[in-house]
Amino acid sequence: MSSKADGEPVTLDALIDDMRKKVAELSDGKLTAAAIDPAGHLFDFGYVDSLTAVSFLAYVEDRWGVTIEDVDVVEKLTTIRAIAEHVQRSR
Hints:
mainly alpha, two-stranded antiparallel sheet
C-alpha cells in the first residue's frame, strides 16, 4: 500500500480511480472516469494529448509527490495502471 502526503493509506485501485477522475476532468466533458480503461494507452485511446499529459503529470506530482518525466509517459508508463503502480512503488 502507498499513502497520501497526509499519511492516509491508499490502495492501487484508489490510485487508479483518482487518476481516472483527473483524466476525465482534463477531457473537458469528453470522457467519464468510468469510460477510461486503466490498461488503455493514454495517447492511443485519446485520453490525453501532449498538453493534458503535462497537466496530468503535474497533478500526479502535486497529489502524490512522485515526479514522472514527460518522456516516460510516451515510452514506459503509457497507461494509468502503469503510472499508478509506479507511484505506489515510488512512495
